[in-house]
Amino acid sequence: MYTGIVQTVAPVENVVRHDGYTTFHIRFPERLMADLQIGASVSVEGVCLSVTSMTGTDVTFDAMDATLERTNLGALKAGDHVNIERSAKPTDENGGHNIAGHVATTAELVAAKLEMPGAFIRFKVPEDWAKYIFKRGYLAVNGASLTVAEADRDVFTINLIPETLRQTTFPRYETGDFLNIEVDHQTMVMVDVVERTLERLMAKR
């Protein structure tokens, strides 16, 4: 599990394509190497990936083609940067919200202002996922725990503070790019239960 508090923005050193999967070489800061082991789970742009090798501070991750199709990792290239969060320990303070690193969908960035004052991102999600996102609700965007400021059907706006701009990859995104979205699991369960209950009640009428 993760908290959605991005610990660093790390450079992608190399991207190696294989048959059926891709290997990402990411340069970690020394402070995040402590106790890191092969097989450890790390959030990379909000996607839960496992460490496959470590050489100094060069850490590699493999992502299957299915993962690349479902997320924005397929667009990564050497020289890009990614949000990184090590998996949280049970004793860690959670300043965000519980995040699994299981991306639900990608959302198109339709507008953005990435400098202060008044920084924001606005994105459009597929209709099937819009029902799980609410004004003032939690959302993980590229692995960052954020609060929805405005909601207009399938278009949502999130306001950004200076620290979020400094500590995440959002400033590198442009209109037309895609963001990884993980909806709050409890919200999703609640919405699905209500929908199914209403369907059963309507069927009995």
UniProtKB/TrEMBL annotation:
Alphabetized InterPro entries for the sequence: ATP_synth_asu-like_sf (IPR023366), Lumazine-bd (IPR001783), Lumazine-bd_dom (IPR026017), Riboflavin_synthase-like_b-brl (IPR017938)
GO term, biological process aspect, one: riboflavin biosynthetic process
Keyword Coiled coil: no
E.C. number: 2.5.1.9
GO MF terms, alphabetically ordered: riboflavin synthase activity
Lumazine-binding repeats: 1-97, 98-194
This protein's pathway: Cofactor biosynthesis; riboflavin biosynthesis; riboflavin from 2-hydroxy-3-oxobutyl phosphate and 5-amino-6-(D-ribitylamino)uracil: step 2/2
PANTHER family: RIBOFLAVIN SYNTHASE, RIBOFLAVIN SYNTHASE ALPHA CHAIN
Function: Catalyzes the dismutation of two molecules of 6,7-dimethyl-8-ribityllumazine, resulting in the formation of riboflavin and 5-amino-6-(D-ribitylamino)uracil.
The name this protein goes by in its record: Riboflavin synthase
Organism per entry: Rhizobium glycinendophyticum
